[in-house]
Design brief:
Layout lengths: L1 E7 L5 H15 L6 E7 L11 H9 L15 H4 L2 E4 L2 H11 L6 E3 L20 H25 L3
Parallel strand pairs: 1-2, 1-3, 3-4
Length: 156
Amino acid sequence: MIKIIFVCLGNICRSPLAEAIFQHKVNQKGLQDKISSDSAGTANYHVGDDPDTRSIAVAVKHDVPIQHKGQQFHHTHGEEFDYIMAMDQSNHRNIIHELGYKHEGLFLMRDFDPDGKGEEVPDPYYGGADGFENVYQMLDRSCDELLEYIVKEHNL
């Protein structure tokens, strides 16, 4: 089983949305027995919380099931997950700090975005619904490319 974890700061906006989009795509391709996903936050602000209502709303708008309880990223995730997808540079640095090394499968989420390779996924928390839609579109494109990459890398 190939395991991917999506990581942002609080684990209520970007990372649970990325997890939901990615897992939906995995399920649509019938790869749920080969690929699994999760999400976490580098901060402990929202441990046990549901995703932000605006993340839920944008997922529902696009017919993407979303269910998650916030959790904090932990150094053991480095051994548990094959891929760690950071939403931005700050969380990328926090992941390396928590692990104590640079994980071979650590990437920025938008490293897989054909419209913004290497850019950050902005945190929509302090904005409105349009920011969540914008983030959804970035994550949707990135998840397509990420899944294609994983399928090729692992001959699935």
